[in-house]
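Run log, item B.
One chain of 199 residues. Sequence copied directly from the ordering sheet:
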Amino acid sequence: MKNENSLKRIEFLKKNIRKQIQKNRDNLLLEYREESSSLIAAKFFNADYYINSENISIYYPFRSEVDTTIIIKKALKDKKKIILPRIFNNNLVFYFVKDLSKQLEKSTYGIMEPVPDLSIPAKISDIELIVVPGVSFDRNLNRLGYGLGYYDKILQNIPEKVKKVALCFDIQIVDNIPVAYNDIKVDVIITESSIYNLK
């Protein structure tokens, strides 16, 4: 009973943080989001894990998220292979994508996802670097997702050697993310002003 109450409290706290941070992020000026996204991308491109990885799993930006299309487009120019997720039967499945204008379609959530018939399937074992979405993070690299659990399931199966990177704005960093036993940290968080990692 004690554990059950503890989990309920964690979920309550997560819900409140999620609501407040998304509101704060939505209120950022578009110009600020664009400039900050470029700063974040520049730091990402300079990192060894980007330079040394060929197969990069990343997500297409949604609403007020960091604009990951900057990274996707440059990575493709750099001859990297881009892997994007699609929601299928309450799970994420992955596909290699080369052409954003032809291989993507809008999902029921409004997120741009790979079209299976136009894309080559990718396996978890293909991923050499994964960029993980999230609503909020703390300096100890804890992650608060959107509450649907898609990436939580994926991260449990990602090999330890695969770097897990989060991209977010400064306002998405909080002092403490409440965590449950099954929550998985990221390895690096990049914001417009800082890079957080434990190494």
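Observations after the first pass:
- The mean pLDDT is 93.
- Residues 112 and 167 are 18 Å apart (CA to CA).
Flagged for discussion on Thursday.
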